[in-house]
Structure formats: structure tokens, C-alpha cells
Inverse folding.
């Protein structure tokens, strides 16, 4: 059980990481001669959907490459985003991790893990939402970093999670 879960997770991390890197390449960097028109169009599409402009929504932190996660953030993820999850604990994680996330790569990644888990109102694979114990029908979801941050800010401003999740 645990070995199978771990090996699946590692394989998923490799495949998903490669796909994610390919998709976000060039999205949050200033326009340069090496930035293609396609890269710019992809970034602007995500920013437009989120209601952001390029000057306000620099999505990728520049100064924290290679930085280790904060011990408090790791402990928070262990406590709130583990195998057993629920809306209350996931909301706590999102609320705690949002401040400073855009300037801290490990914190930003932790925030996105918590947000994605909060949006998934089902139990699937090795993760159980104790407040949503059944699996839902499989569905595909596109979520850019800019969109995710805009959704998180909307949620933290007091908007209903179900409404935000339906618009995702």
C-alpha cells in the first residue's frame, strides 16, 4: 500500500512536473527577445481570465530559487494536507500560506497544493476528504498560476468556495 502510493506519487511528480514546466515556461518573465509571441499570448490569456495585468500579476518568485521550505510551512502541510483532509484544515492552510507566497517559491508551491486539495471535493486514490468521502466523476481542469492566485484572493475576501470551484 504505502510503497505503491509512494512510487505512484514519484512517477506522477516527474510526469506532471515536466508537463507543468513546459506549460508555464515564459509565462511570468518580462518580454524579451527570447520570449515568443506564443508565450506572451498564453500569459496574457491567463492574466485576462483572472482580471490581472502583467504589471500586477508577476506569478513566479524570482529570488527564492533553491530555497528550502520553511519548517512551519512543512508542518502546516503535514497537518492539513495529508492523507486525511477536510475543508476547515485546508482553508487554514490556504489562509496561512497566502501572505508572502508570491515572493517565496516553496511557500507558493505549498499554497497551490493546499488550494488544489481544497478545490477537490472528493476522495480519490490515497487521499481522503473526510467531508467528501466519495469519488466524483473524473474531470479535466485547466488552472494557471495567475488564475489560482486570483481565485485564492477571491476566496479569502469572503466569496463562496463552491461558486469559485464551479468557475474554475
Amino acid at each position: 500500500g504505502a510503497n505503491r502510493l509512494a512510487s505512484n506519487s514519484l512517477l506522477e511528480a516527474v510526469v506532471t512536473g515536466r508537463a507543468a514546466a513546459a506549460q508555464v515556461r515564459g509565462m511570468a518573465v518580462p518580454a524579451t527577445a527570447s520570449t515568443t509571441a506564443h508565450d506572451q499570448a498564453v500569459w496574457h490569456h491567463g492574466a485576462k481570465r483572472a482580471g490581472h495585468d502583467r504589471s500586477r500579476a508577476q506569478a513566479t518568485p524570482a529570488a527564492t530559487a533553491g530555497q528550502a521550505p520553511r519548517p512551519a510551512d512543512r508542518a502546516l502541510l503535514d497537518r492539513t494536507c495529508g492523507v486525511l483532509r477536510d475543508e476547515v484544515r485546508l482553508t487554514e492552510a490556504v489562509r496561512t500560506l497566502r501572505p508572502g507566497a508570491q515572493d517565496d517559491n516553496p511557500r507558493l508551491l505549498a499554497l497551490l497544493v493546499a488550494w488544489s486539495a481544497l478545490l477537490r471535493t472528493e476522495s480519490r486514490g490515497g487521499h481522503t476528504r473526510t467531508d467528501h468521502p466519495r469519488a466524483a466523476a473524473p474531470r479535466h481542469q485547466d488552472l494557471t498560476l495567475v488564475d489560482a492566485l486570483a481565485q485564492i484572493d477571491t476566496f479569502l475576501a469572503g466569496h463562496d468556495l463552491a461558486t469559485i470551484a464551479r468557475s474554475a
User: Anything to note?
Assistant: Helices lie at 2-24, 37-50, 71-80, 87-97, 105-119, 145-156, 161-167.
